[in-house]
Design brief:
Layout (H helix, E strand, L loop, with lengths): L1 H54 L3 H5 L5 H10 L2 E8 L4 E5 L1 H6 L17 E9 L5 E10 L1 H11 L1
Antiparallel strand pairs: 1-2, 1-4, 3-4
Helix pairs in contact: 1-5
Length: 158
């Protein structure tokens, strides 16, 4: 009789352990994804401001270069942007600010991989640029300073 009781106790212990491990994994996933989504939304809203500026100046694509670089540079500085790259709908470079830095941080990878660069200093983001009729005119690639964001993400993930 004692032998069956010990087997039952071992069986229940294993089932509770598996249940609590699965519960812990679920809680970790929900909280870590929630923080990542908050960071993503923060940078998305900043990027939308910059994309709206580009959308309000459609002559950028016809002239082939940024016309009011001073205003855009101030806007980028206020949002802690490291680089800004503008491509047309064919994927050709229209213009940019700190394009060497963008190339060093592999800005095109923001479309296919994680948003944080491999060294953890840049949060890469890209957006489509549309005009009045919602046709796609090009893409904006933006790199933000991400030192504290990277630290917070690692801290929350651990």
């Amino acid at each position: 009789m004692i032998n069956k009781s010990q087997k039952l106790q071992l069986n229940l212990t294993i089932q509770f352990a598996v249940f609590f491990i699965l519960l812990a994994v679920f809680v970790y996933y929900v909280f870590s994804r929630g923080f990542e989504e908050n960071v993503y939304e923060k940078f998305k809203s900043k990027s939308e401001i910059i994309a709206r500026y580009v959308e309000q100046n459609p002559q950028i694509f016809t002239s082939g270069k940024l016309t009011a670089k001073n205003e855009l540079t101030q806007l980028l500085h206020l949002n802690d942007v490291i680089y800004f790259v503008l491509l047309d709908k064919n994927g050709l470079l229209v213009d940019g600010i700190n394009t060497d830095e963008a190339e060093n941080n592999l800005y095109l990878l923001s479309e296919h991989s994680k948003n944080i660069s491999s060294d953890g200093t840049v949060y890469r983001f890209h957006m489509d640029v549309h005009y009045g009729d919602k046709s796609n005119a090009g893409k904006v690639f933006i790199g933000y300073k991400a030192g504290t964001v990277t630290y917070e993400l690692k801290k929350k993930a651990l």
